[in-house]
Amino acid sequence: MTNPVLSIRPDDQRLRWEGAISVQQTTDWLQPWRLPVGERSLFPPVTLQERAAMPAGVRIVFRSDTRTIAGRIERQPEMSPLDLCCDGQLIATANLADREDFRFDDLPSGEKLIELWLPQFGEFRLRGLALSAGAQLEPYADHRRRWVTYGSSITQCRTARRPTETWPAVVARGQNYHLTCLGFGGQCHLDVMVARLIRDLPADYLSFCLGINVFGAASLGPRTFQSSIIGFVQIVREKHPDTPLAILSPIMSAPDHEEQVNAVGFTLPTMRTEVATAVEALRAHGDRNVHFVDGFRIFGPNDAHLLADHVHPNADGYLLMGDNFIREVAKPIFGKPE
Q1: Is 319 in contact with 159 (CB distance < 8 Å)?
Q2: For residue 88, which phi and psi values (nearest 5 degrees)?
Q3: Are 90 and 231 within one domain?
Q4: How many domains is the chain partitioned into structurally?
Q5: Would the CA dihedral through 16, 337, 187, 198 be positive or negative?
Q6: DSSP of 58-97, one letter per residue?
Q7: Do the bridges between strand 59-64 and strand 137-138 make them parallel or antiparallel, or are there none, so unpaired?
């Protein structure tokens, strides 16, 4: 076992926080955010800000020949694990809940691309890293095609076993995409500020999973849901006029949830029709790069046994979603990555 002695500050410019929108820095730690942290008060409500403080899909990326990585973090009572990948291969997983440190030993020898996939649930505040004595540390410029995906807790994937097994991570790793995950548990309500955020991000591919949070909170009704989808897309199209965009309707829920009527008269089947109609309207007005995807093609009635509750897939269900998204969306709509 090699004793790590090369200390790295969390703000070291050779560390790249890929998938983060911004970072918050204090004298003690650095925390990635999935919205502009200096503008977070413009993103209502507080719950959206709390979810954006969780680094789903964010990776700390660098090149090094180190054989050991150790890290110091702020203790959090609830946090998903952290994954270590070397040259794209999952090497090890560290549990972080209620801990102040993590450590990986016996990494492959030689220079390698190191990716620390951060927890998809819980706030991650890094105090510092340490590498093997004499190790080299170099930045890594990620030139892969960029995919931005927006959705609910079903995109944040709290119940995935590890951060590399959320369905967006399965897709990104399988297709060699650069991932920005904007899955916000309970907070996918077509907020205008989120549309502006996506508009201003670099993106080669876009996907939005829409409807389940709107249904659950009855936040939009028959008068506003379709128009909100159209307006959200039009804002994004201001800077991404031709980017391939897949819009997914809600995936399968438990049968009793499928039959439920919410406070504004929606059922999940009618919401799927609303999403499809909005996409048809966009295409009829000239947007040929927007595509409707029936959520049942990603997780359908035959997959209901993989629900963790009445709404969310379990860990195996998220793996299935990733495989199905590659087959139904990434390959036919996005095409082969460069």
Answers
A1: no
A2: 85, -5
A3: no
A4: 2
A5: positive
A6: -EEEEEE--S-EEEEE---SS---EEEEETTEEEEEE--T
A7: antiparallel
pLDDT at position 337 is 63
| Averaged pLDDT for residues 119-144 | 97
Question: Rounded to an integer, what distance in angstroms lies between the CA atom of residue 188 and that of residue 183?
Answer: 8
Q: Which of 117, 138, 159 is the last residue of a domain?
A: 138
Q: State whether residue 201 is helix, strand or coil.
A: coil
Q: How far apart are CA 53 and CA 167, in angstroms?
A: 20
| Judgement on whether residues 329 and 206 belong to the same structural domain of the protein | yes
Neighbours of 192 (CB within 10 A): 13
* Residues 156, 301 within the same domain: yes
77 lies in the same domain as 48: yes
- Helices (H), ranges, the chain: 46-52, 153-156, 167-175, 192-199, 212-217, 225-237, 255-259, 268-284, 315-325
For the chain, the C-alpha Rg in angstroms (whole number) is 20
From 114, 138, 162, give the residue that closes a domain. Answer: 138
For residue 2, pLDDT beyond 80: no
- Our CA dihedral for 113, 36, 55, 321, rounded to 10 degrees, sits at -90
- CATH code for the domain in which residue 154 is found: 3.40.50.1110
Report which residue type is found at 242: D
- pLDDT value of position 4: 72
Residue 13, SS3?
coil
Determine the structural domain holding residue 131 and report its residue range. Answer: 4-138
Q: What is the pTM of this model?
A: 0.97
Specify the residue for token string 């200390």: 7
Note whether 296 and 246 are within 8 A (CB): no
Amino acid 137: pLDDT: 97
CA dihedral 322, 154, 181, 244 (to 10 degrees): 60
161 and 270 share one domain = yes
